[in-house]
Amino acid sequence: MTPTLVRQPVPHAGPAPRVDLCARARDWSEIQERMLVPLYEAVYERLEVGPRTRLLGLGCGSGLALLMAAARGAEVTGVECHSPERLALARERLRPEPAGAHARGGPRLVEGAPHDAAGARPAPYGLVTAFEPIGCLAGDANELAELLTDAIPLAERGAAVVLSGWGPPERCATSSVLRVAARLADPLRTPGGWRPALRDDLEEVAGWAGLVPDGSGRVSCPFGYPGTDAAVRGLLSTGLFDAAVVTAGQEQVEKELTEALHPHRRADGTVWMPNVFRYLVARVP
Known about the structure:
This is SAM-dependent methyltransferase. By secondary structure, the chain is of the alpha/beta class. It has 10 helices and 11 strands. The protein has a domain at 17-94 and 105-170 and 195-224 and 274-283: Vaccinia Virus protein VP39 (Rossmann fold), CATH 3.40.50.150. α2 (37-46) packs parallel to α3 (64-71) and α6 runs antiparallel to α10.
């Protein structure tokens, strides 16, 4: 498929950067998304996700977390409002459907907001997941609160809602690399840049959404790459460097990312960065 090149409508001086959104989505699905597999597994084990689970995944991206839940027998519905390119990859991943899923209606994927999923599968859901980690992008907590406010009416009373976020910067080796985004971005002209994670990010969002906290956990999610080039592509696919690219340009961001990754390169050329992510389990009152 021919990549789609689009111009990003953001306020900055000079010509807007051209971003290959299809390539970025594939970098996410092939390089970066798997870094969060330990998080998905820990949550599914804790909540005993299985054939009786009806799951709504917010910001489902390219669908790896949904695929893992479906493999456990769960009924899964995913919604994605930011990246139709990632959602197209999710559709590829979830078809053919996992064994046994067809008889139960199979996975459902919806482009749009959570309320758009109301017609995809009858409510209520017993589990709502928001696996897109917050805590590194200005405004991400507010956006998640809005998603949850829209999704909660689709969940049953007592349903589990899982929020996830970056752990303390001192426990995340990738934080030193993410600071490139803060240094290169111009916060006055390109809002939405990197910020350090805060201890109570998840609890504050749960409170805003009217949810009742019911436990939390920390999961080791190291970022490992076969080389620096893959690391740069994977990190850029997260969107955390978009504001920096707008301000400084793609070439400069890639150059400084490569330099920032140097301390994390091992003798065999691979890149390894230990990280800790948090998750919060909350309940619909």
